[in-house]
UniProtKB/TrEMBL annotation:
Monomer. Associates with the 50S ribosomal subunit. One of its GO terms (cellular component) is cytoplasm. One of its GO terms (molecular function) is GTP binding. InterPro entries: G_HFLX_dom (IPR030394), GTP-bd (IPR006073), GTP-bd_M (IPR032305), GTPase_HflX (IPR016496), GTPase_HflX_N (IPR025121), GTPase_HflX_N_sf (IPR042108), HflX_C (IPR045498), P-loop_NTPase (IPR027417). Residues 199-366 form the Hflx-type G domain. This is GTPase HflX. GTPase that associates with the 50S ribosomal subunit and may have a role during protein synthesis or ribosome biogenesis. SUPFAM superfamilies: P-loop containing nucleoside triphosphate hydrolases. It is found in: Cytoplasm. Mg(2+) binds at residues 212, 232. It comes from Amphritea opalescens. Belongs to the TRAFAC class OBG-HflX-like GTPase superfamily. HflX GTPase family.
């Protein structure tokens, strides 16, 4: 965008080096999946190990020679490192092998750029790309790093590189301003849902865990779902109806990944705000993935970074159709609360158990017992019927109405307050009344 680069093709060499001091090593398999998701055609995989990265070229001189030979052998036009490279390291490697070099962060940014569909998503990706490029501009402008001069070119003594950085900062400032407007619009929507007491349920999880497939199964939506990393980028909201809860909003969000670039987390903060302010998180986990434990750890890390680690969470183990002798079920803690649901979003097995678990976690307190109404309290009877709270009705000879009622306690309190009926009459003296009822 801001500087000329060699035209890149799909033929790519992948590079993965194991570092002795790395606590969380990247996965070579994941690098290949990322490359395929970006549209590259991996033709060779260079691996090795080092105690520490080379400050100049990340890999040693021998590996640089080996990499150059692979590039010439396969006529590759792109080399992808499964690591974060400094701008200087990228420049040195490119100069040595005469081929374009991309690090892990740049690869993920490229995939995000391909997947963005909405105006907001494109803005967020562009912001992350610009911030990533800002430290790498020197590569494209080395031939212009001199003062402008000559007739008609005498200016404020600004180099071309400085001019470009100034324009880049102006563009970043413009995008941030537009994203702030989007953030305020989302905030208004959340406040409106909060006033109407509509809970938000957000799907989170490692990329390619099956969130969009589950979202489509629950909502009958047609969100793009594919067996590739970051198939979903733009957030989607849909309304669902839950027994005893009523309407709720289900949000499908971007998938997380190991060492998700911090620039992306910052750029997508407006989108991820849906997650931080949700009443319930559905952490979708690929039950068939042998690396699921490490992936769960990465999701928890990102949730903590965006301030959503304290939100009530239900684990959803997906893809049980790929496991032998796996059955749909709900796992509960010592208090009997649901903590985990096993299901298959593809076959639909266990979806009804997921609804059951969500309802149990979201329902504050259900009032389910008999109410005896006097004949003159027909208005309350009508309101209870209007809310679908009456399960059974018996009228005795004196005209007393015995109703079997099932309703959320807060809804019953609100109804009694509207009709100027003391809640103690039906819920006893120890009823916990909300603050608005005391005023």
């Amino acid at each position: 965008m801001f500087f000329e680069r060699p035209k890149s093709g799909e033929c790519a060499i992948l590079v993965h080096i194991d570092m002795a001091d790395e606590v969380d090593r990247e996965s070579p398999k994941e690098l290949e999946e990322l490359a395929l998701s970006a549209g590259a055609d991996p033709v060779a995989f260079l691996t090795g190990s080092r105690s520490l990265p080379n400050p100049k070229t990340f890999i040693g001189s021998g590996k640089v020679e080996e990499l150059r030979d692979l590039v010439h052998l396969h006529e590759a036009e792109l080399v992808i490192f499964n690591h974060a490279l400094s701008p200087g390291q990228e420049r040195e490697i490119e100069r040595a092998i005469e081929c374009r070099v991309l690090d892990r962060t740049g690869l993920i940014l490229d995939i995000f750029a391909q997947r963005a569909r909405t105006h907001e998503g494109k803005l967020q990706v562009e912001l992350a790309q610009l911030e990533h490029m800002s430290t790498r501009l020197v590569r494209g402008w080395t031939h212009l790093e001199r003062q402008k001069g000559g007739i008609g070119l005498r200016g404020p003594g600004e180099t071309q590189l400085e001019t470009d950085r100034r324009l880049l900062r102006a563009r970043i400032k413009s995008i941030l301003k537009r994203l702030e407007k989007v953030r305020k619009q989302r905030e208004q929507g959340r406040r409106a849902r909060s006033r109407s007491e509509v809970p938000t349920i957000s799907l989170v999880g490692y990329t390619n865990a099956g969130k969009s497939t589950l979202f489509n199964r629950i909502t009958d939506a047609e969100v793009y779902a594919a067996d590739q990393l970051f198939a979903t980028l733009d957030p989607t909201l849909r309304r669902i109806d839950l027994a005893d809860v009523g309407p709720a909003i289900l949000a499908d969000t971007v998938g997380f990944i190991r060492h998700l670039p911090h620039k992306l987390v910052e750029a997508f903060r407006a989108t991820l705000q849906e997650t931080t302010e949700a009443e319930l998180l559905l952490h979708v986990i690929d039950a068939y993935d042998e690396d699921r434990q490490s992936h769960m750890h990465e999701v928890h890390t990102v949730l903590k970074e965006i301030g959503a680690d304290e939100v009530l969470t239900l684990e959803v183990y997906n893809k049980i159709d790929m496991l032998e002798r796996a059955e749909a079920r709900i796992d509960r803690n010592d208090e009997g609360k649901p903590i985990r649901v096993w299901l298959s979003a593809v076959s639909g097995e266990g979806i009804e158990l997921l609804f059951e678990a969500i309802t149990e976690l979201l329902v504050d307190d259900i009032f389910h017992q008999q109410l005896s109404l006097r004949p003159e309290e027909g208005g309350l009877r009508a309101q209870l019927y209007a809310q679908g709270a009456v399960l059974n009705e018996v009228v005795d000879e004196q005209g007393m109405i015995d109703l079997e009622v099932r309703i959320q306690k807060k809804d019953l309190l609100q109804l009694l307050s509207r009709m100027h009926i003391a809640p103690e009459r039906y819920l006893g003296d120890n009823v916990n009344k909300p603050e608005w009822l005391h005023s």
